[in-house]
Write a structure and sequence with these properties.
Layout lengths: L1 H9 L13 E3 L6 E3 L1 E5 L4 H10 L4 E3 L3 E4 L6 E4 L13 E5 L5 H15 L5 E5 L19 H10 L8 E6 L14 E6 L2 H7 L4 E6 L5 E6 L7 E4 L2 H7 L7 E10 L2 E8 L6 E9 L3 H12 L4 E9 L6
Parallel strand pairs: 3-4, 3-7, 7-8, 8-9, 9-10, 13-14, 13-16, 16-17
Antiparallel strand pairs: 1-2, 5-6, 11-12, 14-15
Helix pairs in contact: 1-2
């Protein structure tokens, strides 16, 4: 249920707290109007969709969709839930839980999104936790295809529903990817790192500026599990460094020589410290493994790693 609770919080309440209408509910805890959602889920997220409905049935209604292929052509044969025997989709807010794990899945889900856009839907929120083409956001050789751009354009040119489609993505590889989205779809970039902060126990002394008293100290939590946070490269430090005030920061750097990665420490001292390596994405795990070796060799007493997306490879 932890994942469903976090997603429920990510789906923010309506902007104006007014008397709830038929398609909204009133949040007793916040006193704000909360949107209700019909959930359409891609196959990998069905269990989570049902958990969301179970966690708050007043707010979430899962509508089962049948994803299949025609036997002769192997083309999509999809029936979207919520349209029969009574159409409960018209005029509703839709949460579409997407999984772009391969090209076939991407095309199938865009076919459903097009159909939803043409069904008088009030709003569509696409939950796409992992944007798999995010690392292909630029090219270095003419003729290469920046697939981060092409997928964003497919979202951006979906039929208009009167307001932009909200595409929620966790820890996209580079923040600049958001500018590939425009027009009919806009990216809402969020991070999984706050969930990490809520689970690690840390003894942190924060110096907080105050108008009356220049600095005051605040001690947070009673036990220290990690002394330092490490990043495998400068990019990860820029993305996530501000999440960890009070921790010693260690910055590594990598150089590729063919298939070999050489990782060295560029800044910070891990000697005698318990170090947590933080990054957005792990595929082969080679960079994290080499960073851990470098940090251990420099004197760290313990090394662990966290990433938002353990993508791996299809055969893994």
């Amino acid at each position: 249920m932890a994942h469903s609770s976090a997603l429920s919080e990510t789906l923010s309440p309506a902007e104006s707290p007014q008397r709830p209408r038929s398609r909204s509910i009133w949040s007793e805890s916040s006193g704000e109007q909360m949107l209700r959602y019909n959930i359409i889920s891609s196959p990998p997220w069905v269990d989570l969709a049902m958990q969301l409905q179970q966690s708050n049935p007043q707010r979430f209604a899962y509508r089962e969709t049948k994803w299949s292929k025609f036997e002769d052509s192997q083309m999509d044969n999809i029936t979207i839930g919520g349209f029969t025997p009574r159409n409960v989709m018209r005029g509703s807010n839709v949460l579409f839980m997407a999984s772009f794990h391969n090209n076939d899945a991407i095309l199938s889900q865009f076919q459903v999104l097009v159909a939803l856009c043409e069904s008088f839907i009030k709003s569509i929120t696409v939950l796409l936790p992992y944007y798999p083409t995010g690392t292909m956001e630029r090219v270095v050789t003419e003729g290469q295809v920046a697939t981060a751009n092409t997928i964003a354009r497919m979202f951006s040119t979906l039929p208009s529903i009167g307001q932009p489609i909200r595409v929620i993505i966790f820890d996209i590889h580079t923040l600049q990817n958001r500018f590939y989205f425009y027009g009919h779809a806009l990216a809402d970039l969020v991070s999984g790192v706050p969930l990490l902060l809520s689970t690690i126990k840390a003894y942190v002394e924060l110096d907080i500026a105050d108008a009356g008293d220049p600095y005051r100290s605040e001690l947070r939590n009673a036990e220290c599990e990690y002394d330092a946070i490490a990043f495998p490269d400068e990019g990860a430090k820029k993305r996530f460094g501000t999440f960890f005030p009070g921790f010693d920061l260690i910055i590594c750097g990598k150089v590729r020589q063919g298939d070999k990665r050489i990782v060295t420490i560029h800044d910070g001292d891990p000697t005698g410290k318990r170090v947590l390596i933080v990054d957005d994405l792990i595929k082969s795990g080679g960079t994290i493994a080499e960073a851990a070796k470098a940090i251990t060799s420099a004197g760290a007493t313990a090394v662990a790693a966290f990433c938002t997306h353990a993508a791996g490879r299809p055969k893994d």
